[in-house]
Specification:
Layout: E1 19-23, H1 24-38, E2 44-45, H2 55-63, E3 69-71, H3 74-82, E4 87-93, H4 97-107, E5 111-116, H5 119-132, E6 136-141, H6 155-165, E7 170-176, H7 188-211, E8 218-221, H8 227-230, E9 238-239, H9 249-252, E10 262-273, E11 276-279, E12 294-295, E13 301-306, E14 311-315, E15 327-331, H10 335-339, E16 344-349, E17 352-358
Parallel strand pairs: 1-16, 2-9, 3-4, 4-5, 5-6, 6-7, 7-8, 8-9
Antiparallel strand pairs: 1-10, 10-11, 10-15, 11-14, 12-15, 13-14, 16-17
Helix pairs in contact: 3-4, 4-5
């Protein structure tokens, strides 16, 4: 009998390691808390699926009131559409013949919106849309200070919008800007100040377009670290927060109102000395670009190093009760990249395994 077939009798100790766990109570609480906030403001939530990469979680977010889903890549959007999610924003540029052809196939069966910031790309999208007989929804991405993708605010965006409106295969829906350079700023007052500067650029650009008679239906922005700043800024219509649903220890310092629902379960496989223990979780199971993850609920033990398949725990007190065969949970410092290392979520409620979900968006970065 497989693990899936005997879920009712399995607790966490029956899960093989390393394994990616979701505390279902914490996840459901995060979804409910964010949904409640967006019932109190004019903006809507369009959560970013690049965090969880899993349609069943996206459906739960939509059932709680989200207007649709945001995806980082075309491959993620294809996964969501196959699972019956229609309202999808690809918050990225789709460039090149192969990807544009895939985008057209997706757009024939979903209400997809795609970002653009280049007239040549817009012409390619328009030509492809005309060939398949559709009008492709587009947003123009505006650089609001992150210095990544995006057109400069104001007149450069106006000029591009004017050209896009002349392209028969496209339907201009509005603007998008991401204030990602502000999301981890501390204290909150500084984050609010810098995020507000970014939103002024975005909404100022909207005003520039509307003053010339160009209608702007959508203004999409925001992330987990700024959801309650951008979400209240006049003119912003939707927020793309994603990490809140499962969270990590990095974001927990920024938005403590949400709970860390994600952990990696590992097994102690060696204790060579009284002050050193080794777990079967390395860089292939958890990421460390935001810092080395630490064990949950264990005093006196510090994870000091990750190699490919091993994690090294330094025991500050040799009497710390950690022994070979023990199970430890580690809170990721970056949920999005850790999830991308795994094929499955193990959903637990309390100490019981309740469900196992595939992560079909994992690795879909094309």
């Amino acid at each position: 009998m497989s693990l899936v077939e005997r879920l009712e009798s399995v607790d966490k100790s029956g899960i093989d390691t390393p394994a990616l766990l979701i505390d279902l109570d914490a996840m459901e609480g995060n979804i409910a808390k964010m949904a409640k906030y967006f019932r109190s403001v004019k903006a809507k939530l369009r959560p970013h699926a690049k965090t969880h990469k899993t349609p069943i979680i996206a459906h739960k977010q939509i059932e709680a009131g989200a207007r649709g889903i945001t995806c980082a890549k075309l491959g993620e959007a294809e996964v969501m559409a196959t699972a019956g999610i229609r309202d999808i924003l690809i918050a990225n540029q789709v460039v090149g013949r192969q990807k544009i052809e895939r985008l057209m196939r997706l757009a024939k069966h979903s209400d997809v919106i795609v970002a653009l910031d280049d007239l040549g790309n817009a012409r390619d999208l328009s030509s492809a849309a005309l060939r398949v007989g559709i009008k492709l929804n587009v947003l123009i991405e505006v650089d609001v200070g992150m210095a990544r993708c995006g057109v400069e605010p104001g007149k450069p965006t106006l000029n591009l919008a004017t050209d896009v409106l002349r392209l028969p295969g496209l339907r201009f829906r509005g603007l998008m800007g991401y204030e990602g350079h502000t999301v981890f700023m501390e204290p909150f007052e500084k984050r609010r100040e810098e995020c507000t500067k970014a939103m002024k650029l975005l909404i100022g650009t909207m005003d520039t377009l509307e003053d010339t008679g160009i209608g702007v239906e959508i203004v999409s922005a925001g992330g987990t670290g700024t959801y309650n700043i951008s979400g209240e800024y006049p003119g912003v219509t939707e927020i793309q927060a994603g990490s809140y649903v499962l969270l990590d220890s990095k974001y927990k310092t920024i938005v403590p109102e949400f709970d860390c629902a994600l952990t990696v379960l590992a097994t102690v496989i060696s204790k060579p000395t009284p002050d050193r223990a080794i777990v079967d979780m390395g860089m292939k199971a958890i990421t460390s670009e935001f810092g080395i993850p630490q064990p949950k609920g264990v005093d006196g033990a510090e994870l000091t190093r990750l190699s490919e398949e091993h994690g090294k725990l330094q025991l500050k007190n040799p009497s710390t009760p950690i022994n070979v065969g023990d199970r430890l949970e580690f809170v990721p410092t970056h949920c999005c990249t850790t999830i991308n290392l795994h094929d499955k979520f193990y959903g637990v409620r309390g100490d019981r395994l309740e469900t196992i979900w595939d992560i079909p968006g994992r690795g879909r970065f094309q």
